[in-house]
Amino acid sequence: MVRQAEREAPRALDVASGLNIAAFNLGIAGGAWGGGLVVAHLGIMQTPWIGALVVLGALGLTALSGHLDRRTVAAADGEAALATACAD
User: Fold this and answer.
1) Is the dihedral of CA 23, 26, 32, 35 positive or negative?
2) What string of pLDDT tens digits covers the 88 residues of the chain?
3) Do residues 5 and 13 touch, judged by C-beta distance below 8 A?
4) C-alpha distance across the termini of the chain, in Å
């Protein structure tokens, strides 16, 4: 997010950094809350497989994010090539 803010809106770099930290803190709070729910309702012995499911979900989201980033870069490269070809 911070790199994108540097590109798109350099004046908003502080805001982007603050949002990045806020998202990190929300993730910590959400994980603690979710873990508390698991322990309260399912017991402490169920936390390893629930944690494994959370990790698999995170890996899936990371792979999706990488795919979308590559697709965006490929589209931008295609547009740049088209603009160069039209200029010639």
Assistant:
1) negative
2) 677 777 777 787 888 888 889 999 999 999 999 999 999 999 999 999 999 999 999 999 999 999 998 887 777 666 665 566 666 6
3) yes
4) 35
**Given its phi and psi angles, is residue 9 left (phi above 0), alpha (psi -120 to 50 degrees) or beta?**
beta
Place of tokens 């729910």: 37
Cα separation, 85 vs 81, in Å, equals 6
Please count the other Cβ atoms lying within 10 Å of the Cβ belonging to residue 21: 10
Supply the pTM of this predicted model.
0.64
Residue 44's H or E segment, with its range, is none
Positive or negative, the CA dihedral 2, 7, 13, 16 is: negative
How open is the CA angle 72-64-26, to the nearest 5 degrees? 105
